[in-house]
Amino acid sequence: MVGGGIFAVLGLTIDLSRGGAPIAFIIAGVLALITAYSYVKLSLRYPSEGGTIEFIVQAFGNGLFSSIINNLLLISYVIMLALYAYAFGSYGAVLFGDGSEWVHKALSSGVILLFIFINILGAFLTGRAEDIMVFAKIIILLVFAAVGIMSINWTHMAPQEWMPLPSVAAGGFMIFLAYEGFELIANTARDVKDPQVNLPRAYYASVIFVILLYIVISAVAVGNLSFAEAKSAQDYVLAKAAEPFFGHIGFIFISIAALLSTASAINATIYGSGRISYIVAKLGELPIEFETKIKHGYEGMAIIGILAIIFTTLFNLNNISVAGSIGFLTVFALVNFANFKLYQQTSSNRFIPAIGTILCSGAAVTLIGYNIQNSPDSLYSSLVVLFSVLILSYLYNHLKGKKLAAYIDKELEREERLLKELL
Length: 423
Prior knowledge:
CATH superfamily: Amino acid/polyamine transporter I
Shape: globular
Helix content: over 70%
Oligomer: single chain
Strand content: under 5%
CATH architecture: Up-down Bundle
Number of strands: 0
Radius of gyration: 21 Å
Largest sheet: none
CATH topology: Amino acid/polyamine transporter I
Number of helices: 17
């Protein structure tokens, strides 16, 4: 979850919310926490490597609608990859002392190509690289938060310094993608020991920890910079926020943490999340030999990476952030609705997923409406994504006759068949 999102979009959130930036993170965090309830219940009832798409299929069937949502999820991962790469390029360019656009784009594209190559070399190297990068970035961020909180100018977060509530809420919805990583727990549900205990712990602990971390980080950034400074350094605001209490060495260390963080997020996205959605889109299900069948994974890695390079070079940060958040808010609204619909099978309190459906849907609509009114250019990439997903899903389903399987995960299908026989 603590991937590139906090580095990439914090500046945008401060620009929209000013002193209300920590409130914006709380708003987004509440949406994530409510949605985590649906993920807990659905993961326990339908443990599947298909994760989110398995839940959609079980609730809405395996027709065109579920195919569209799978492809929307896939393209949302591509957008996240583009966001991480954009942030990597921003921090890398200022760290190396050259903020020119061509250096930014070269770094953004180069880091994606690098991790495509690393992933092709094999899962062991991928995992090793991920462990090192995650450990380093968390340590640096915790030090930043612990030291920076002591030098906060709290007047920067006084209510009179907040933007109007709709703008603060839009800032929260804009950075919703900084929370989305918890949904990947669903893809590992089958491998969790004592899932009835450990799956809820995993979901809730991760979301709550990240909410608290983001609140502190955003408070440190707002409390140590003027709003003019935050706006001028929008693409690398965390590094700039470290200067008042750490000096230039702080700027360098946070920039390094940003590079590590965005790089680890790129690495994980290429290897895991996008790969699964790609295979489902191509084959309609996860093959029995999914753990060893790597051909389609390599093919998918390359396609996902190339699409991300196109996004990160053609669109600006605002476009990418809006498109990514709208995509995940839409998917999460449907996951909440899936749990609402399947509440008897998942033993859920129906009120919670109903609230989650309303809030996530409302957040997506609010974000769209805010940008139509204040920044219509920010919706260009979202329109491209929506049009592409609808057209390609329709053509692939009707011209090639491809559709999703009734169960994405073959192991889950066997378990469900045995359960029906026992009943």
